[in-house]
Amino acid sequence: MVNGFKFRLENVLNLKENIEELIKRELSMIRDDLGEVEGRLDALLSRYRGEMDTLLVRGDISPAELSLYKSYLSRIRKELEIGRGEVERMYQASEEKREELLNARKERKKLEVMKEKGYKEYVKKVLKTEQMLLDEFNSNKFKKEE
User: For residue range 117-143, what is the model confidence (pLDDT) as tens digits?
Assistant: First the structure.
């Protein structure tokens, strides 16, 4: 009965679904990378704090060692700044990709609503046609009996 329904934008709907899935995978990859960078940043921060604690606990540090520590800690601070910048860029990319996903989802849902409306119209027409055929059949049957 209703197997003959063909949504004329089915290919577009399939394309929108594929695009949405692709964006989901991209967002997942960005979030995974972000988590990895945040983990490295946390480890670097722990190392910096550990070195600072070591420096504060040791009281007998020569000027040469102090200079080395200062240089080493300065390098770690720069790496932390770079890491924070990378986290911020990745977070921004994640938010942009999330927004892109929301837009793709809206586009797909619009097409699904159109498909559902078209299907309902199709079913309505099929039922109307069937009813007309039944009415005609009953009318012909009634005429024959007279």
Answer: 999 999 999 999 988 888 887 777 666
